[in-house]
Write a structure and sequence with these properties.
Helix content: over 70%
Number of helices: 5
Structural class: mainly alpha
Shape: globular
Distance between the termini: 41 Å
Strand content: under 5%
Order of helices and strands: HHHHH
Largest sheet: none
Number of strands: 0
Oligomer: single chain
Length: 99
């Protein structure tokens, strides 16, 4: 079995979270998105961190954890604003509006 290099780990966790979310396993998705966030942060990848925060916000909103969802979207909003990533910024804003 091949072990993923450290640089692939955040994306793998993100993708596993997406798969769990599609299958309705929100707790599993939440766990994978948290691992993805930790790995993106450890790698210094702010854009990846912003994506992970958006996914965490969406899962928390699905679970009706409104404060956690809002905090995740706020953090993503801050990162995307600083990065100047208009696309991710818009995604964070749209999702936050729903909360």
């Amino acid at each position: 079995m091949r072990i993923a290099p450290r640089s692939e780990r955040p994306s793998i966790e993100q993708n596993l979270g997406i798969m769990d979310n599609i299958q309705g396993n929100l707790e599993g998705a939440l766990a994978h998105y948290r691992l993805a966030l930790d790995a993106f942060q450890a790698a210094g990848d702010e854009r990846g961190s912003a994506m992970a925060y958006i996914n965490l916000g969406m899962i928390n909103a699905d679970k009706k954890r409104w404060e956690d969802a809002d905090a995740s979207f706020e953090r993503s909003f801050e990162l995307t604003l600083r990065l100047g990533d208009a696309h991710l910024h818009a995604i964070a804003l749209i999702n936050r509006t729903e909360v």
